[in-house]
Specification:
The chain has about 170 residues and is an alpha+beta fold. The chain has helices spanning about 15-25, 40-45, 55-80, 90-120, 150-160; strands at about 5-10, 30-35, 140-145, 165. Helix 1 runs parallel beside helix 2 (about 40-45) and helix 3 runs antiparallel to helix 4. The chain starts with a strand and ends with a strand.
Length: about 170
């Protein structure tokens, strides 16, 4: 089975990039990555990216953290039996403060862990199919096509107003 090849279409404006991305939705090629020198809501909308699952990591971390904080406070109170002015050893109201702090701590840690897992970090080959002009004044659409159809994809980028760059695999 022939390996897929990559072609990068370089565009000078956001409008041309978005129109090329919309035209590629009906084409047989697949967009792998889009490089932009500026944050662009229009490009993000054109990609139709699914909603992130990162919030579930944060929620799970918060729930685990709350109960871990309560458990730690109850455990330490029952181990030491410090009775102050006849108050109960397990006083729930102050323990909710500890649970709240652990909620924040575990939520942040789970969020960072989820970010690393969901974004496949570290990406050590990020520059393999990259053009440095995408950091300055060009927008880039990296598309994948079957072997032998690179020229067809390059011509598509030319008709959309872009400059194609073909990558030779090692």
């Amino acid at each position: 089975m022939p390996a897929d090849k990559y072609v990068l279409g370089l565009f000078t404006s956001e409008d041309k990039t978005v129109s090329a991305m919309q035209a590629m939705s009906e084409a047989p090629w697949q967009i792998e990555r889009v490089h932009s020198p500026i944050p662009s809501e229009r490009i993000l909308d054109s990609l139709a990216v699914k909603k992130s699952r990162l919030g579930y990591f944060t929620l799970a971390g918060g729930i685990v953290g709350f109960f871990a904080g309560l458990a730690l406070a109850v455990f330490t109170a029952t181990r030491w039996h410090l009775i102050v002015w006849g108050k109960p050893v397990v006083a729930w109201i102050p323990f909710f403060i500890v649970g709240f702090e652990f909620t924040i701590l575990f939520s942040v840690l789970a969020n960072v862990l989820g970010l690393i897992m969901l974004s496949d970090l570290p990406d050590l080959n990020w520059s393999e199919h990259y053009d440095p002009r995408c950091s300055g004044d060009h927008f880039g659409i990296l598309a994948r096509c079957p072997d032998g159809r690179q020229q067809e994809l390059a011509e598509f980028f030319r008709t959309q107003g872009g400059e194609p760059r073909l990558f030779e695999e090692n």
